[in-house]
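Entry 14. Ran structure prediction on the chain below.
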Amino acid sequence: MRYRKTFAIHFLIICVVIQALSGLVGGTWLLADPSGGKIGLPSSWLENSPFPDYTIPGVILFTVLGLFPLFVAGGLIRDNKKALIAARLLGFALVIWIAVEIWIIGYQPEPPLQLIYGILGIVIVYLAYSNSVNNYYT
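Output, structure tokens:
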């Protein structure tokens, strides 16, 4: 017998969809303008990075933090047990992305995107390991 989805499951799906949409939009912007100028990212942030422009970060953002979460959300909606593992991976990937970004360019408080997405990653990990979510998918 399948139980109804809990609030935690719905909230996890919403968080994953938010990440998917922002990853797709952000990645698209960076790929459309690898200088980052159209979205206000200074090229000086890349001085201590291995990247000459925002193309590679744009590809990673679009695929790993955009397309992948889209598939994760679909799996969670369809009650795929493997989607829960994928949601955990997504949460960790987002936290690692933000940590590496802060390590390379430093913490940028304005706009507070690093803080917001760092918290989003932690929330995704927390929800994906929570009892109510785990009990539903197992």
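The two ends are 12 Å apart (CA to CA). Will compare against last week's run tomorrow.
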